[in-house]
């Protein structure tokens, strides 16, 4: 989600994601999320120059940033790219059956079963017909 980030840059991030896992099978990979601009950081200043609108209060911050990826406050990013990053996030969550914040046996079983398909989706940035990812996104919104 950085300004001027290309599809090739995103693919390099994904390649590194899988290389790290290949190099160390014991690590638990996090997930790939859109960038969030925090006040006081160098990137925040860049984001302001790129058109970031500063939320007026804490509630606006929470709605415009974390967990609401398709509506994130990233003015330099197209809606299509936001959607790609949204599905990339949920696909990488499903690649991690031992993900720390999800303490569910059902989640672990489902993740193990579908992880080869999610791995293919992530490697190829292919999120056409994302029925399963849309279901996960819906559940995520309901529990958060």
Strand fraction equals under 5%
Radius of gyration from the alpha-carbon trace, in angstroms = 16 Å
**Average pLDDT value?**
82
> What kind of sheet is the major sheet?
none
Total DSSP E strands: 0
Count of DSSP helices?
6
Order of helices and strands: HHHHHH
> Could you say which overall geometry the principal axes of the C-alpha atoms support?
globular
Low-confidence stretches: none
**What is the straight-line distance between the termini?**
23 Å
Helical fraction equals 55-70%
- Counting helices, strands and paired strands, the structural category is mainly alpha
Short description:
By secondary structure, this protein is an all-alpha fold. The chain is 56% helix and 0% strand.
Report on the structure:
- There is one protein chain.
- It contains six helices and no strands.
- It has 144 residues and is an all-alpha fold.
- The relative contact order is 0.14.
């Amino acid at each position: 989600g950085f300004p001027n980030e290309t599809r090739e840059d995103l693919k390099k991030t994904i390649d590194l994601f899988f290389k790290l896992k290949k190099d160390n099978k014991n690590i638990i990979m996090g997930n790939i999320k859109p960038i969030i601009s925090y006040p006081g950081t160098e990137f925040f200043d860049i984001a302001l120059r790129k058109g970031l609108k500063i939320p007026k209060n804490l509630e606006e911050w929470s709605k415009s940033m974390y967990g609401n990826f398709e509506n994130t406050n990233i003015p330099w990013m197209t809606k299509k790219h936001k959607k790609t990053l949204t599905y990339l996030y949920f696909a990488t969550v499903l690649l991690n059956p031992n993900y720390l914040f999800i303490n569910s046996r059902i989640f672990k079983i489902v993740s193990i079963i579908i992880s080869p398909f999610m791995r293919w989706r992530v490697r190829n940035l292919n999120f056409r017909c994302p029925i399963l990812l849309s279901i996960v996104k819906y559940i995520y919104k309901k529990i958060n």
